[in-house]
Backbone:
């Protein structure tokens, strides 16, 4: 279900920390603090300090891992784990072998746009059918590393399905808050099949979000909407 991360010699991280995205604030927090936002109310980002990084060695390591049968190396997120080293070295990762989605050539679209070549990275090939899986493996793994058992989101579709799948696989309980009548039926079905607790709120998305955001700390929920900085860490590997 979960798999331990390997250490690597291609990059040594002296520190990983959270930092406010607002330049005039710039407040920093420990990476293991459970925070959905900075004290100033702005979003947080995960930052790293590398004393050295060998790009060529990293490329060789990542290429070698593509031949590995280790589920971490089969993941299009954790294969590049030297670039998202926020977990402790011995922490497990929750992966469904997400990522590695194909680049599909689009010759007719390229011709229409006057380009020599154009390709589309089809994120629909992910386990639950969306790019949210790339981020959710990182967010869910951080939740587990923090010892959290309840993960939550406000969602009308892909986030709920993705979170429910990773929670189920990682032994966590998913709690999904749904704005009344605003969720795609197929995604709701996915969430229910994965065992998520779904709560319909008689309000629109914005009102539901404000309610849940105020409740997460009191209820001991770990929020896995896109304000979670570790979600972004996973999603950036799409580019890598």
Residues:
């Amino acid at each position: 279900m979960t798999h331990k991360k390997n250490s690597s010699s291609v990059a040594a991280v002296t520190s990983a920390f959270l930092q406010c995205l607002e330049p005039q604030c710039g407040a920093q927090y420990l990476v293991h603090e459970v925070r959905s936002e900075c004290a100033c109310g702005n979003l947080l980002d995960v930052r790293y300090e590398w004393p050295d990084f060998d790009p060529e060695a990293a490329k060789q390591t990542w290429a070698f891992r593509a031949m590995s049968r280790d589920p971490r190396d089969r993941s299009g997120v954790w294969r590049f784990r030297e670039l998202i080293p926020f977990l402790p070295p011995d922490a497990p990762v929750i992966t469904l072998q997400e990522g590695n989605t194909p680049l599909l050539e689009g010759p007719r679209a390229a011709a229409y746009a006057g380009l020599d070549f154009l390709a589309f990275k089809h994120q629909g090939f992910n386990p639950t059918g969306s790019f949210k899986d790339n981020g959710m493996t990182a967010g869910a793994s951080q939740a587990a590393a923090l010892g959290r058992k309840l993960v939550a989101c406000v969602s009308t579709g892909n986030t709920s399905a993705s979170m429910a799948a990773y929670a189920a696989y990682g032994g966590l309980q998913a709690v999904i808050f749904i704005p009344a009548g605003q969720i795609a039926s197929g995604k709701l079905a996915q969430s229910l099949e994965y065992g998520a607790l779904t709560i319909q709120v008689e309000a629109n998305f914005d009102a539901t979000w404000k309610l849940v955001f105020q409740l997460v700390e009191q209820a001991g929920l770990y929020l896995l909407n896109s304000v979670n900085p570790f979600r972004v860490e996973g999603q950036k590997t799409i580019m890598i």
User: Anything to note?
Assistant: Residues 2-8 have pLDDT under 50 and may be disordered. The radius of gyration is 19 Å.
